[in-house]
Design a protein that fits this description.
homohexamer; alpha+beta; 5-stranded mixed barrel; two-stranded antiparallel sheet
């Protein structure tokens, strides 16, 4: 198996296929154009400069293209950089495809789907169950492929479903320890809380915000969807308002984007479970390549903190 | 015409009908019960104590009852108080009704309805026009009677419609001076921005928050309604998202309850027009009884400031 | 079994023993002294006024005295109040003792001690294990009896140990779902994080802050104790600093009293587990007497929010 | 008529006169000097690099020089850049002057002066009228030429007067709709509110802050001027204090630079009118070149928001 | 010498003259009026209730009246209260005057005046010296009698001058240790920084804010006065702006009322010296009656902190 | 004597020895490596580029190496830059040593030690005196050599001791003017307040944070040390807690890193003295090279303000 780009050390030579994640043109001080390429595989990404780039190069080496590169790993401003000695576009017989280079959730889509379906199956309140099942069915295909965000946490293929499955398992453990919690509300709130992201975001690859995502946001989007689902299913109980509230308040505070703070016990706990899973994901990824006795890079969404891996944790 | 309760001076005698707005039982240090009555007419309200209240008195003098009172105006802790000498419930031949004691917008409902209809009529974009007309029709009856809030500004009968009409007139003047503004968006945004209050609030009298008002809030309520209206009218253009955004962002900032800040020019201006009209209303009411050369009471929603009426403004 | 004071409704008659939690003298407008008594049993507390109190009464009905009372439940300013018809001090043959009136953790001290000991027993890192065991032994007696706070959450006898045991169980579940977490660190951090409260607070009954508690605070107190324990046990590894950091940072942010924010993964998660357990405790207690379809009183440490119990949660 | 620099698209060729707004020397990685030129005309500005710049070039191509350039429009880091093919200083027979390249208010100075004079003429309170007229006369020449700021809004020649005139027209509309407002106060407050900028700023071209501007600020400067004017005109009424207050408080809050918040109704409304006109100006300029269906660049003084131009606004 | 009112203990009998600082009418639950009197002498103040007060009593026992009282010290809600047994207005032959009951600076006005004059005499920059001398002369009489505030610190007769003299002595010590400081600037800034309070406040007794104080504030008032003084003295150097800046910025930050933050070294240090002296004054007064081993009451302007007097400080 | 690097003007030629403070590799647009060198002597530092750097150069010109350079001073982006014409490593007979290039406190270590010892000698409370003396002895060697910080203020050799000595002198002056202050507490608090920095920081040269510094911080480190010292010296009085509190609270507020705010008078004053000395140091250094009539660079720890040196201060 080929070594991932994240595992090379300074001075090593690289001879592998990589995917161009981004390609930006610059003009050097000698007046000639160059390309700054962000190259990725499933383990991570690295920057490379393609000097004296022709107009053809700009087209050939654009985003979402697979390339074959040969070069050396340098250290530049605290990060590794790939100094290219050779680059060419993928050829038919190279036998690689884009999916080989994209990070994906560690659990298969089908398994996640099965698990979530089981959680819905266990619900006792039929109003909650029907709304949840209806919306999962309506948006299920995208839901199983979208990332949970464009960056920060679960920003990989199927990250959204993976985040939801982890939260469901955590919710199950928490509600076992605190039996006063209503499992139906908690499970449904978790399954729906970020579902609006399938409309807020553009898709699983090269993810950006849609106009609707920018102007309305995933919270209001899914609150609307719950309202329409209830109308369609002819459900009128307080469950509709309560589910809308759980989703509406899951960012916890107005200044974090929730027009109402949690005012129901399960809404408060949903906010905590969401936070805990998101932060575990950030921390695990940030500390993955950190050696015992060293600090990670600063993690912006964790208040820009740098985390230490104790030396005795071998 | 009878003098309003707000116009009495300390030492004057009162002999008039008033409406009990609130009645709260207390226990005096001699162990006997008393009632604290808030009595109102259209000009304002005053506190009175009914000492040695029997259990019958508690029932007779409860909230929303009209009474005939005789007493004197005292000064107590910076406010006027009515010292009761005589009180009795209204009698059939007193020829007064509750509406006589409630503050109401200074313009008739019918006139406001006509004016708003005219603004809708002038719209050129039929998607915006149809959604606005549909929702006004759906909630028009309540819209013309509800207050705009439980306190702070326009907290009187038909206050919601009165606030909207004032804003529309202001928007017309502003968009004449700044012709780059789109009138359709501005007018529709104004008509819809607080319409969710007919669900958020309990009604025109003794107004409180409903459960849906507390858990979802008028902003998300009306955003949902716009979505349902568009579905019902089979409108699919970007106008739907844009109108939802105008309403969604009209509180201006996340910490003021808008999950998204204004990101469209007309949304930003709508926020300003809303603010300006609300503050004019607060200021005019706070300064109404202040004499030139004196300061008003502190106005809580205006950062608890006290306002001065210059001595040369006779 | 006698009905608890929290379960009486307005209009019902009370004839029971209660403990005076606080007794404050006032002077009525007739110039005579009266006592405001806060009376409690294990279910809650209620206010009562003792009018025309003599100087003897002040002594007889002072704090921490058990009394026999007869009276009626009234409603006053949104809370129940006990209108006394008769009150006398406890008599020898009444056969009640103070402990009968104090709220206590729902798990026996011995069971909690056994559970915590087991968690320590399972630790694999002997430095962490020895420091934890040493400090638990040093302060164990008080630890098993103290509340976790003077108010807000776990403010009852053995509340501190109960909070720790709940957190340990939660930590076990969380670290099973997220196996990258180091259990030793998490368990030790939880056992020690609030242990300084046995010095910060005055004791299990009528709890107040000590001078050392006010000036130094439980966080710095226990950080010092860890340092001294390590010196005593001649442990010099990085475990000492790391344990100190876990305790030091468990309030999460400087403005919440942690001189350093969490900079180790287990410190971050400890902060979350602490928060989640404390809030579950507050929420369960606040919602205990709330009926479905109603809102709780405002809960100050939860940003003064009022929580709703959905009507369909029967 | 020549096409403005803001209207060129990538790939087009430029052959025109431009004004050097700023010229900064850099040293390229080959050790040779180069100049970064910001070139402007009335429609906007563009960056260009002059490579291998000699010491003579530094002098020839300094700030406030007109040049004749030939080159191509490139795209670089999200902005257009001019790649120079030829550059030479202006020649006598080129028949261009600096004023041709500077952005100016869309209304002539004389017309603005006339309009403001008319507003003063309509004032009824002679104290307010005399102070306003005196200060406008004292600083009128600069007032009609200065920008309203060095950046953010109305940062062009005569921008200060243009801002004031727009505000006066808006104030007239507002006070017609809310007749309780005192027009004299509002008009005078508007005319004076930013007049201190003629001392705070260095002048209409290449505008920077003066020492007095930095240390005292335009608010305190004009408050002092009002005091001196009153002394000179021997006016002693409360109007002096009230006018000073209007200017002093027009930033609205202490943290925005007003030592006192508005405490007079007209002061509060002046603050709103100032804000509304400033933001309309920012928004119109930011959206000028944005196409329907696209977002503007981020606007720093509008909380760094990016604004959307709806696709249906053709 | 008579014992001051602050030195009585609970249970002791009082028989002395006191000054009525404030007198407020209330209505008791028996319907009769009573007066709440705040009685003071130079050591402090105490509350007393005058029950069953007639309309004559309201006049006789109004603010700024000296009374002869007999009564007992009680404890009520954490504070001492005087239970009146007898009260009568002062009589001619009682031989007491208002000044006997007012707290005054511990240094004589003449001595303070002499000291400040000496500091001015030592100045070397004649522009600074002349402006300072001119303004001290213009407002000197009031300056020597006014308090420095209505509450919080130096809120006694001649408190303003006393605060300034303490700051001057501190400035002398500081500038000896840090010789880079310009003494002229520092001394003049200190003498002038709060001089506007002679216009902002109503006078030395029963001090309130004037209209000008409320609308303009002491900072802007004295900045204007410096400008007028310079004009009168025909001084045009940068000293004028710099002195204005020192005063303008002495609250340190915009949110604390300074439209500009300190931007000159001596301005920054002036802010610190002002703070240090004000806080020493608050702390000394708050701790005056606190016994070793006890905490003071909460001090609002010190972030509502309570201060501890160590037990070993006998 | 050789001219310091801070005193060269643009255009002047440099021929001197300098110490490499930092050396960072970059890759130029021609693909060749270059080094960015920060060169320093006791007066300041300057940047230089070493183009076309070989791998040998990287080793030869690494951090903490002395070099002989010849070059010219250029201006680049608002700062001076040294354009190298020649560079070579130091040679044995150059007769320079690292200490010649490092900034050091202006007072000799021995003199500072003597002065601090004298302050301890004057203490009257033997508990305070013994703890202070013990800790100074334990960490004295490092204390006299460490800087007070890695940047911002007193960031030079022996800066920590120099900061303490300046504060002691200031404390002496302050406690003379305010005799209610306890000198023992103030002096001991000052000597100990930053002593934890000898563990928090790595050493006097190329100073960074240690792991313990990052995770625990100098405040908690020294609080622990005081506890251990007291245990070692068998001191049990309240002095221990009080000294710990003084150190613990010297950052003033929770959000500035103090888990408790000052709650003892001397703690409050210690915080002020610390601030005043730190800011004087920053201001003096920032203004050192500023000419009268000009502004300094922005000073980040002083809220990013720029300070003005008045033109009349020649």
């Amino acid at each position: 198996m080929v070594k991932g780009i994240a595992h090379y050390e300074v001075g090593q030579q690289v001879d592998t296929h990589l995917l161009i994640k981004a390609s930006t043109k610059g003009i050097a001080s000698n007046g000639k154009a160059f390309l700054t390429l962000i190259l990725q595989d499933q383990t991570g990404e690295i920057e490379a400069k393609l000097w004296d780039a022709s107009q053809d190069d700009e087209v050939t080496y654009s985003s979402q293209t697979i390339v074959k590169v040969i070069g050396d790993i340098h250290h530049y401003r605290g990060r590794n950089q790939l100094k290219l000695r050779n680059i060419r576009p993928v050829q038919e017989d190279d036998n690689v495809k884009i999916a080989d280079f994209l990070e994906t959730a560690p659990v298969a889509k089908e398994d996640m789907h099965k698990k979530i379906t089981q959680y819905i199956f266990e619900m006792k309140n039929s109003n909650i169950q029907r709304i949840t099942r209806y919306l999962l069915k309506k948006y299920g295909t995208d839901f199983l492929e979208y990332p949970a965000a464009t960056k920060n946490h679960h920003e990989f293929i199927s990250g959204l479903a993976y985040h939801v499955v982890s939260m469901l398992d955590l919710a199950k453990a928490v509600s076992t320890l605190y039996p006063s919690l209503n499992k139906d509300l908690l499970y449904s709130g978790i399954i729906l809380h970020d579902l609006g992201k399938v409309i807020e975001l553009s898709g699983p690859i090269g993810t950006t915000y849609t106009v609707e995502g920018n102007l309305i946001g995933h919270i209001s989007i899914i609150v609307n969807e719950i309202g329409k689902a209830a109308e369609h299913l002819e459900i009128e109980g307080e469950e509709v308002i309560v589910l809308q509230h759980l989703v509406l308040s899951h960012h916890g505070k107005a200044e974090w984007g929730s027009p109402k703070p949690p005012m129901i016990k399960e809404a408060e706990i949903l906010h905590y479970i969401d936070n805990l899973d998101a932060k575990m994901n950030m921390l695990d990824r940030a500390l993955e390549h950190v050696k015992p006795g060293e600090f990670s890079e600063r993690i912006f969404p964790l208040d820009n903190r740098s985390f230490y891996k104790p030396a005795f944790l071998k």
